[in-house]
């Protein structure tokens, strides 16, 4: 067994949350477009399988992990979505959740991880392939406990999630921001006849917003020989 002072492989999350399910494909997006016209009251659903390959490829690329931060989309955020300075700063530089730097911290992984390392290593392999975690050789400033959450799906198969538990330390340093959620009535007020609706089923949606590089050192979550 190597002790804490010896070299180890650690992973720091680069996405908004260190959460992973059993599917390795971040770009798994299923598009259902409601197609209508002013001349007709009827509408129909267009499955993504009906889209041409170039169109589907472009749509999937737009929803891969961290794609919203790519410079080619900045103009769209600024001109089409009219994003304000706070949002544009996140788009260009990453999200900064911490109002102040947490003190140094280390916590070993939860027993659910230690007792199921083969499952954890498979998930980590997928995360590395998706480029949603950063592999480092030195222990990050803060290393929180990693928890494996498992549940049985309707078809009897198991679904596994890796969760970085920051409740004992780093969460106390997160900047609290008020959030107001709109009701469905608000959406109805904005809806007009012949409007189109698009439903996006995003896999691993937490990975679509990057953490600012200078704050990733407090999101260490792994501590084992990979």
Structure characterization notes:
It is a single chain. The protein is of the alpha+beta class and 226 residues long. The protein has one domain (10-218). Helices cover 22% and strands 21% of the residues. It is built from six helices and ten strands, in the order E-E-E-E-H-H-H-E-H-H-E-E-E-E-H-E. It has helices at 53-62, 74-80, 85-93, 111-114, 117-129, 184-190, and strands at 10-13, 19-20, 31-37, 40-47, 105-106, 133-136, 142-143, 145-152, 158-165, 198-200. The strands form four sheets. It has a three-stranded antiparallel sheet with strand order 2-9-8. Strand 8 (145-152) and strand 9 form a beta hairpin. The longest helix is centred in the middle third of the chain and has 13 residues, at 117-129. The protein starts with 9 loop residues before the first strand and ends in a 26-residue tail after the last strand.
